[in-house]
Amino acid sequence: MVFAQFIFLVIFISQFYDNAECISFFHFTQDPPPVRDIALMSRYIVHHSDWATLSYLGNQSFMDGMPMGRVYSVSDGTINNSSGVPYIMASPMDLSFQDVVKTKNCSLVLSLAQSDYCKKKSYDPEDPRCAQLTLTGKFVKLDKDDPEWNVAKTALWTRHPVMRKWHNLVPGHHWQFAKINIEHITLIDTFGGRKYPTIAEYFKATPTFNYWPKLRHSVITVKKNVIIDEEFIN
């Protein structure tokens, strides 16, 4: 039934948009673990986040020492493999990247507000039940000869496929990979205050990928830089 809907949608759209490019994505969703399992909840948030806010101290002359923030796409692994290490791809032309490479100290803030979970539960992004996580540590730029370079590339390019094209779309930006070396973890996932899973507990926790209660299909049609996004639920 779903496949028939997909074919019908492609045919229908093609009637109005010549030479349209159709791409089908399959998004898997999984409810968060119990709030009592703070390490697993932390790993869940990291793995199910597509983006995060990187906080750091500015190092530019006009913002020297001032707190700054920048949204980056993140990934800790392919959809069925979670390492717990958040990776970022950025250009050295990015002033935020320049600053955090120098200052190194940073925090990465991730929230389930970007997921369907909080929307389904009618949780406001500030509601503690709409879990949020702060990873504090050191920003580490990876070298091309570092084995982790390819790990980061695979993690990001499989979760953010458009990144593969950035080298051609914006040439000369010398895209690089980086990670956060986590030193402290702060979790808020329900009422009652903050929680602090240890680094050992965090990396010991093993997310499961053996149940997916909902499969969402997206069909994206591109025509002359106009994107039409259609979704239907299985």
Task: Summarize this entry quickly.
The protein is an alpha+beta fold. It has helices at 2-14, 38-47, 95-103, 116-121, 147-159, 166-169, 199-204, and strands at 21-29, 51-57, 67-73, 87-90, 105-111, 132-141, 176-188, 214-223, 226-233. It is found in: Secreted.
List key phrases describing it.
six-stranded antiparallel β-sheet, disordered N terminus, three-stranded antiparallel β-sheet, Protein CREG1-like isoform X1, 234 residues, globular, alpha+beta, 9 strands, Pnp Oxidase, Chain A, 7 helices
How would you characterize the overall build of this protein?
By secondary structure, the protein is of the alpha+beta class. The chain has one domain (38-204): Pnp Oxidase, Chain A, CATH 2.30.110.10. It is built from 7 helices and 9 strands. It has helices at 2-14, 38-47, 95-103, 116-121, 147-159, 166-169, 199-204, and strands at 21-29, 51-57, 67-73, 87-90, 105-111, 132-141, 176-188, 214-223, 226-233. Strands 3-2-5-6-7-4 form a 6-stranded antiparallel β-sheet. The radius of gyration is 19 Å and the shape is globular. 22% of the residues are buried. Residues 1-28 and 211-234 have low confidence and may be disordered.
Shape: globular
Q: For the largest sheet, list the strands in their spatial order.
A: 3-2-5-6-7-4
The CATH architecture assignment turns out to be Roll
Strand content: 25-35%
Organism: Aphis craccivora
Protein name: Protein CREG1-like isoform X1
Signal peptide: 1-22
Pfam family, one: CREG_beta-barrel
